[in-house]
Amino acid sequence: MSFFGNKRLIIVLVGLVLLISVVGYTSRERVNLTWPEMFFKDTFSVVQGLFYRPAQAVSGFFKEIDDAYKVYEENKALKAGLDQYAQMSAELHDLKAENERLRKLVGAQDSLKSYKLRFAEVVARNPDTWNNVITIDQGLKQGIKKDMAVITSKGMVGRVQSVANFSATVELLTSYERRDHISADIQAKQIVNGVEVYQNISGVVEEYDSQERMLVMRKIPWGQKIEAKQLVISSGLGGVVPRNLPIGYIVRVEPDDYGLTQTAYIQPSADFSQLNEVMVVERNFSISANGEVIPQQPTNGTSTPGANDKATPPASGGGQ
């Protein structure tokens, strides 16, 4: 038994010596590989190539899918950012425009601080009656009354046609259905003895010429010198529209059909294409049933011009 035990030990030792010898021999630097090494390397490279290429293809496929998904998510985020930027730009532009309009309204309020002004927003404008009427968000509950003048920061746009509790309909100066006339003055400049003198020349704004896109002022006395760009304002003589509200500027003057008076074409001061916020002007006097002028008392300490001036009742022609 000892012989067989020693024999196994000798075999193990011889095997270890051979293994160490082979390892030492193969680990040294050599010019050529042995044929077993070449066989195992070639076999391993073939097997590795068979598995490596499909694995790389599958890995590349899933990587491309992942990259495409990342690009999709990035584009989605960029589009959302662009949409948000466009929305914010539109809101900013709208706020700037509103701020500019409100600044102009405040400036108009300062220039007309003698009158009581009521701010209103245009809430409806029918395309079928675009040049005729607008609807504002102020009514009887806010003190709006029929025939009150309506203006913007640039000039007069119309008058209140009808009033509900919380809204009102405003008839525009550009309405072809308008029947009421507006008594107006042309602020003409003349030279008298070498001195510039301003003279008001009276007339009546009767209609709107849709082809010319200008207001038509008639009944201007013959012989009065009128020039282009002279300001036209309300005279307040009709008893409805207050005095000194800007209406427009003279473009040209022509004699009437009979050569007795003159007719002036006026470019409106207000921009009727952009009516967003308006102001309703409370007149400074009212007309009694028998045609007597009744001055109104100032409200909340606000002074009204012309309260002590003599005003003329409305003419039979319906002038305002």
Query: Taking Cα atoms only, what radius of gyration do you get, to the nearest Å?
Result: 47 Å
What pattern of helices and strands is seen along the backbone?
Answer: HHEEEEEEEEEEEEEE
> Helical residue percent?
25-40%
> Terminal Cα separation, in Å?
143 Å
- Tell me the number of helical segments per DSSP (H or I, 4 or more residues long): 2
Low-confidence stretches: 297-317
Mean pLDDT: 77
The CATH homologous superfamily name of the domain at 182-272 equals: Rod shape-determining protein MreC, domain 2
CATH architecture of the domain at 182-272: Beta Barrel
**CATH structural class of the domain at 182-272:** Mainly Beta
Main beta-sheet strand count, sense and barrel state: 6 strands, antiparallel, barrel
Hey, roughly how much beta strand do the residues contain?
25-35%
Which topology of the domain at 182-272 does CATH recognise? Thrombin, subunit H
Shape: rod-shaped
The structural class is alpha+beta
Q: Find the count of extended strands (DSSP E, 2+ residues).
A: 14
What's the arrangement of strands in the largest beta sheet? 1-2-5-4-3-12
